[in-house]
Amino acid sequence: MEFEGTAALTTDQVDRETARKAEAARVKAAHDQEFAAFAEASYHQVERILRSACRDREVVEDALNEAYLHGRVKWSELRAHDRPIGWIVVTARFKIMKDRQRCQREAAMAPEDLPPVPRSNIADVWEAQETLRGWLHQLPTRHAEVFQMAQEGFSNQEIARILGLTENSVRSYKVAARRGLRELAEEAGYTGPDGHRRQGVSRGSR
Amino acid sequence: MDLDDILALAETTPSPLELARARRVARAAQGQYDVSLAEGYKILVDADLVDPLTCDADEAARVARVAQLSKLGTVTWTAGGTEGVGRIFWSDEMARIFGHAPGTFRLTPDTLLGLVHPGDAGRVRAAVRAVWERKRPGEVGFRVIRPGGSIRHVHCHLEITTSQGEPSGIIATGEDVTTLELARRERRRLAVRSRMLCADPAARDALTGLATRGYVIDKVDRARRTTGGAVVVVATEPATRLPEALTDEDRDQLTAAVAGLLRTVVGSELTGGLVGSGLWGVLLAPAGDDAERLAARIVERFRNHLFNVRQKTVRLNTSAGVVHFGGGISASGFDLLVDGEHAARDARRNAASIAVLDQPVADGERADRCRSRVRHAVSANRFALYAQPIVDLQLNQVTRHEILLRVRSDTGEPVAPWAFLDMAERVGEILTVDKWVVDHALELIGRGAQTSHYQVNLSGRSLADPGLLAFVTEAIDRHGVKPECLTFEITETALIENRNEALAFATGIREVGCHLALDDFGTGYSTLTHLKQLPVDLVKIDGTFIVDLCRSPASQALVSMLVKLCAALGIRVAAEYVQDEQTIELLRNLGVDFAQGYRTGRPEPITVSRAEAQTVELELRFPPQYTALG
């Protein structure tokens, strides 16, 4: 029985093995596709969030490369997450933090030494983003990150969990960041057509 | 356009560039993953695979966990019930930041504050209270004193934790920022340093636009130590006596005009400058072959040029001396310029345009000639005394005068004495000059009403003479001068060679009733030891700190600290070279006692007016009662 069974099992096993392999290949192909779609949809958001807090563009890119690679390796688990983008942000942020702790990059340049944001006429998307980034870099890091994540559509709870903050803080940081940005914008001469009213409003909210 | 418009513009769907980057990153990740599968190795993922969005630990634990992963320390405080104290604990990392082994310290809010530097504890307490009362996050930086006594800088973010919709406590996330703090301070220090550091202004003379005397001497000195070369010294002197009415400004104008002409003849490659009154030095190094031709060219141009002073034309008698020297000779840069000057004088005496020395004069011969020049000037009374008013900045009126020396040139023209005095000091004949000045100044003062306070200069080198004190006291008696109206200013304190004699003179002169001042304080080798050991009553801050006072924060810092220092030591402070109203105001605010300079009054010759027959009355003529406010 056993021998027969063995023989029968063997062919069966081979079949199953082949089927499993085919299934694995199918799953992998599906995951590959899923991952590619995820990367394409999430990359710009993660990049904008990280760059709102980190001035060094290359550091951000390195961190993103590693985070997405690890994301691909663990995609079979990540795909089950509510929003895998959260994990990518967390992973890339840790990578940047470790980098910074290793080489004390922050010590090399202090906010007070930052080159002033160039005053240009904001005519296109790229210029708007660059100007905004320049202003964000002048805000406290936490304010900048929270603000940018909110811009990318994350809820307060999501932001709190991804950045490791309390929800109370997220609410405060968001308000503080917007106030800081408005001040910087007004300082740079972007007061809108109705400058007085807006100034009054911002004074009132302080 | 305002912030909202900018935000709207920036917040768009991914741009083509961003999409391209996204695809590239995805492809790279996919590629590396596939290679790892094909080659059978594992890519290590050290990150936690928990979905950050679904974990539902309580808020404090969640924040603490993220902090721990980021190597940040946390202190968690949970508000207590009716007791009001609550529970407090710190993470192992935070314990380490405070210098304690995990679990060895009994933490309460008070013991924790006890670990904070006493200077910062109040601020930390206030920050925590503000966060809790306003229910808003905050941050605080403070110093921690570790058990061994070492101090670390720590920065903490303070956040309100919420539990079941109610604020439940505070969590502080912090890290040791000592390295950052030190780096920040160093950056700030360097910024201040570079703002305060002034390029050496001694290299260019403001009036002539040429190198200063010191710079020329140093350059010549370098050349004689290295390559050798030649110096050309051009002596210029007005061919006719200038009208008495000429002011210093007119003379300065003439000097500037001569300098301008010299620049055009010599060009900008060669080092040249004013090395004495009416003496211009030019260095040719390493090759001095062209020196004679250059000298002849300068002399010819100068002789043929008509200079304008006050709508009058002036011709300059000009002659030049050329000194060739080899490398590594013993004669100093100063010596070579003196040789050049002597050669130029010889040329004039011989009615030649230039005289050439193929090598420097022997040291003894040069010194003898210098000494005899000084002695001759003294014995022939070829000096004139001037008085410059000094304003008391508190009273805002002239209360003092400095007696200044002018040397008469060959044509009898009084010229600034700095080059002459330098020479006299170097050949050890300054005592003779100083004695002449003391004797004649006291004579003039004694003949006058003695309504002012008079400051007379003495070289630091003269103080070494044991007979000086007796000479001065005798002169005071002989001329009937009130000793309390006299201040002796020690110039060139670097040259005080015999400390004992200097101290004996200083003490003795004060016992007589006179005051003692240090001149040109802050430059050269004037040391702070003098302020401690010599019985000084007044310090005159060197003019280099005053001329740029309004523009230079470094000068302001130095002057203000010097004033404080002197006040603490019981010494009054005077400023020289005061040239404008703004400077006067600044000096007054800084607490300087006296100001002296062109703004408060130029030096005027002390004249003896013989208006009434028989009686000889001294009248110090200074410009019509200037007050400091003009």
Describe, in plain words, how this protein is organized in 3D.
The complex is a heterodimer of chains A (206) and B (630). Chain A is mostly helical and 206 residues long. Chain A folds into two domains: 1-109, no CATH class; 117-206, Arc Repressor Mutant, subunit A (Orthogonal Bundle), CATH 1.10.10. In chain A, 79% of the residues lie in helices and 0% in strands. Chain A is built from ten helices and no strands. Chain A has helices at residues 2-53, 57-73, 75-78, 84-103, 105-108, 125-138, 141-151, 156-163, 167-187, 195-205. The longest helix of chain A has 52 residues, at 2-53. Chain A is elongated. The relative contact order of chain A is 0.08. With 630 residues, chain B is α/β, with parallel strands linked by helices. Chain B folds into four domains: 14-44; 59-181, PAS domain (Beta-Lactamase, 2-Layer Sandwich); 201-361, Alpha-Beta Plaits (2-Layer Sandwich); 378-619, EAL domain (TIM Barrel). Chain B has an eight-stranded mixed β-barrel. In chain B, strands 6, 7, 8, 9, 10 and 11 form a six-stranded mixed β-sheet that branches. The longest helix of chain B is centred in the first third of the chain and has 24 residues, at 16-39. Chain B is elongated and about 105 Å long. The model of chain B is unreliable at 609-630 (pLDDT under 50). At the A-B interface, helix 1, helix 2, helix 4, helix 6 and helix 8 of A face helix 1, helix 2, helix 3, strand 4 and helix 7 of B.
